[in-house]
Write a structure and sequence with these properties.
This protein is an alpha/beta fold. The chain contains 24 helices and 29 strands. The chain folds into 4 domains: 224 residues, Glycoside hydrolase, family 3, N-terminal domain (TIM Barrel, Alpha-Beta Barrel), CATH 3.20.20.300; 194 residues, Rossmann fold; 151 residues, Immunoglobulins (Immunoglobulin-like), CATH 2.60.40.10; 85 residues, no CATH class.
């Protein structure tokens, strides 16, 4: 059907039929209307592989899911800084989607990593909006190029798991547009996703699911998005307001709970049917565009090729963080002992939660070692990945082997319970038994290599005691094979960090305002996220943004700018040479930064504006040219409510990381004169600082919203957005609901194969559940009247008799 035919079809539908299309028919499919020949399409979780639930397959975490290639998650892929690699991975995932009749992949996730403590960071690309946006656009192109839709998520400002379904992210206008919305803007304009998924949280007091400023004014009007907007699962608050704001599709089905409210709103005149028709059009357009081929006509996948790509993806993404004395690569003939429970089946290769993949061909390091070499494997478990406690016997055996070896390779990292969807991290440390064994082994052998697995930065008090660290992030199903090739020099590490690694959490820019709650979290640091803060404040870090070593060395030279002054409509071409000065082939990731030298407004010291992966044979030199569009010099001017290029002097610098910029040159840029109030100026509190003490007075001066109440409401004032956990301490009836909800959720909450993880995730999910979601998640069993009565009972304003009356009215 073309657009006119879809509009004609909509005119034949009743109001009830139209409204039914605005909600899924179940957890994964859109609604059908057989009498009108309206088909459904299937959407499935990603984003680093396909997680399609299917009862034909063995139970795996969140449900019975098909076997699929588990690629390295975004946190790993981002360290490749390769748009081509990310696009290739997207293409492969799309091929598996087509093979299983899936029309929309729920990804990529492009939320900014505001804090290393976010439990879901492994699903996101970077702290930098430009890098995150470019990589997300590449993933979208790779998937959509195969005729499969994507869902860019989670829109917007969803940067923590704590209270994610209710908390209000209080962020000033400049930071909102410059940092938190920018990756979405880049991905929408360049990638052109079929759908965008709104987040659970509120943004400056308004739920994303009913935020017209985001869903319509910014996304559609400003950025030109013409696809469908869907909710995250259970993210809907007020459905009629959501329809008017631009939320087309509610997922999953609410069992008719919200359909009735939309129909009532239309019939009462509170909601124009025009908005319903518009949402219907977007749903039907998506179905028409992406409806899958008949099952008999679905193409087969080359799963072996996809596995090989998963291996390659980690080989290009792993980051060599330390290599004193060129201890790596390992050499044949050396006496090497491998230590750590995470080297084998208990090793981590993906995160936990809705993104977890039923890996088709997972290969751990110990298995890969036996496949790739005939050399004897000397291995000691050393510690248990299922516990934080030191096991004296395991450690004693490991120390015995370590004392007799030339080199020791320790596999360490965050276990499932340390980072997962649903709750944030408690600490940046590794499990205590792992830190203990690293220190102990360092006492008996000075040649220690740590292979580090984690989806986010960790504290490394032990760094000075080891010779090398290879960071494999979460490496996907081929992590074992890739790690072997990286350790033994079959592949030269080329990844660079997509995030700054602080020495400790207390030194991060948001440490004083994380995760806050119960109602809001304030982004007092404004635009100073990650390296924007550390470089501006001149604070030491463990590893800077963009950092990564190689088994060879590179040299930058001959910086040339195409012009001395950049004007509107013109781009700046920046040329320089990169030479491999070592004796083996390697790949360097060249990074280009721009800093404003004389802005009237406060500015970061520098921002990433371009990058390139450069493959160089030993001794080879290449000239690289990167182009900076005129618009890249812009910042968001709050007085204009838009981006503006300010006239003045800028510094263009090129190098290996945000802290290692070998070449630099100043340039004039012709733009507009900018005048800003003192709070927004370079002379204000955000213009110069030496620590992360961004106080509330300074924040609210640039936020322009009044100080928000941030206390748990008293019993009697609980509302539909109050969470069960906030009611727990005051309401005996709420505690009964929590007990029941926890037992019911435990049957379905399978984020991990580790039951301790599932138990913790269940407890956090129930405690952080807004009361409104009780009705939404019960498939129509709980009516709006029953939900209100239950709330009244929590407030001490109703009894079981009132609940019985509400039930009888059902």
């Amino acid at each position: 059907m073309n657009d006119n035919e879809i509009k004609a079809l909509i005119e034949t539908l009743t109001l009830a039929e139209k409204v039914s299309l605005l909600s899924g028919c179940d957890a994964w499919q859109t609604q059908t209307i057989a009498s009108k020949e309206i088909e459904s399409i299937w959407v499935s979780d990603g984003p680093h592989g396909l997680r399609k639930e299917d009862l034909k397959h063995a139970r795996q975490n969140g449900g019975h899911s098909v076997k699929a290639t588990c690629f390295p998650p975004e946190a790993a892929l981002a360290c490749s800084w390769s748009t081509q690699l990310v696009a290739d991975v997207g293409k492969a995932i799309a091929e598996e989607c087509k093979a299983h009749g899936v029309s929309v992949l729920l990804g990529p996730g492009v939320n900014i990593k505001r804090s290393p403590m976010c439990g879901r960071n492994f699903e996101y690309y970077s702290e930098d909006p430009y890098l995150a946006g470019k990589l997300a656009a590449a993933m979208i192109k790779g998937v959509e190029g195969e005729g499969v839709g994507t869902s860019l998520k989670h829109f917007a400002v969803n940067n923590q798991e704590t209270l994610r379904m209710s908390i209000s992210a209080e962020v000033d206008e400049r930071a909102l547009n410059e940092v938190y919305l920018k990756p979405f803007e880049i991905a929408v304009k360049e990638g052109k996703p079929s759908t965008v998924m709104c987040s659970y949280n509120r943004v400056n007091g308004v739920y994303s699911s009913e935020n017209k400023a985001l869903l319509t004014d910014k996304l559609r009007t400003k950025w030109g998005f013409d696809g469908l907007v869907m909710s995250d699962w259970g993210a809907v608050s007020n459905r009629p307001l959501g329809v008017e704001a631009g939320l087309d599709l509610e997922m999953p089905s609410s069992g008719g709970y919200n359909d009735a409210s939309v129909i009532d709103a239309v019939e009462s005149g509170a909601l124009s049917q025009e908005y319903v028709d518009k949402a219907c059009f977007n749903v039907l357009s998506l179905v028409e565009k992406l409806k899958p081929a008949a099952e008999a006509d679905r193409p087969l996948c080359d799963m072996a090729a996809h596995h090989a790509l998963a291996v390659t993806a980690l080989e290009k993404s792993a980051v060599l963080l330390k290599n004193d004395g060129a201890i790596l690569p390992l050499k044949k003939g050396e006496s090497i002992v491998f230590i750590g429970d995470m080297a084998g089946e208990n090793g981590r290769y993906q995160g936990c939660g809705s993104s977890i993949i039923n890996a088709a061909d997972r290969v751990d390091f110990l298995t890969a070692y036996k496949k790739k070499t005939v050399a004897e494997l000397v291995y000691a478990k050393g510690y248990s990945a299922d516990s934080d406690s030191v096991d004296a016997e395991l450690e004693k055996a490991a120390l015995h082997f370590a004392g007799e070896a030339d080199k020791v390779v320790i596999f360490a990292g965050l276990t499932d319970i340390y980072e997962t969807e649903g709750y944030d991290r408690d600490t940046m440390h590794l499990p205590a038994n792992q830190e203990h064994i690293i220190d102990a082994i360092s006492q008996v052998n000075e040649n220690v290599v740590v292979v580090l697995t984690a989806g986010s930065p960790v504290v490394m008090l032990w760094l000075k005691n080891v010779s090398a660290v290879l960071y494999t992030a979460l490496g996907g199903e081929g992590a074992g094979e890739a790690t072997f090739d990286l350790l033994y020099g079959n592949v030269n590490p080329s990844g660079k960090l997509a995030d700054t690694w602080p020495r400790e959490f207390a030194e991060t820019p948001c440490a004083e305002h994380w995760p806050m709650g119960p109602r809001s979290v304030t982004y007092n640091e404004s635009i100073y996220v990650g390296y924007r803060y550390f470089d501006k404040a001149c604070r030491n870090v463990l590893f800077p943004f963009g950092y990564g070593l190689s088994y060879t060395q590179f040299e930058y030279d001959e910086l040339i700018l195409s012009t001395e002054s950049v004007k509107a409509g013109n781009a700046l071409a920046v040329s320089f040479t990169v030479k491999n000065t070592g004796y083996i082939d390697g790949t360097e990731i060249a990074q280009l930064y721009v800093g404003h030298n004389e802005s009237a407004a406060y500015q970061p010291a520098r921002e990433l504006k371009a990058f390139a992966r450069v493959e160089l044979k030993a001794g080879e030199e290449k000239q690289i040219t990167l182009e900076i569009p005129y618009e890249s010099f812009a910042f968001y001017d709050v007085s204009r409510h838009d981006f503006v290029v300010e006239t003045g002097s800028y510094t263009v610098s090129v190098g290996a990381s945000s802290r290692q910029r070998t070449l630099s040159q100043d340039i004039r840029v012709a733009g507009k004169k900018v005048d800003v109030p003192e709070a927004f100026s370079r002379k204000g509190a955000y213009g110069a600082f030496a620590c992360n003490d961004f106080d509330d007075a300074d924040f609210y001066a640039i936020h322009t919203r009044s100080l928000q109440q941030n206390e748990i409401p008293p019993r009697g004032a609980f509302g539909m957005t109050t969470t069960l956990g906030q009611m727990r301490g005051q309401s005996p009836f709420a505690r009964k609901i929590i007990w029941l909800a926890t037992h019911l959720a435990a049957k379905h909450m399978h984020f991990s194969t580790n039951e301790a993880v599932n138990k913790k995730a269940t407890e956090y999910s129930v405690n952080d559940l807004p009361f409104k979601n009780i009705g939404l998640s019960c498939g129509g069993i709980v009516t709006p009247l029953m939900a209100q009565t239950l709330l009244d009972m929590c407030n001490g304003l109703a009894t079981y008799k009132d609940l019985w009356r509400a039930w009888r009215k059902k």
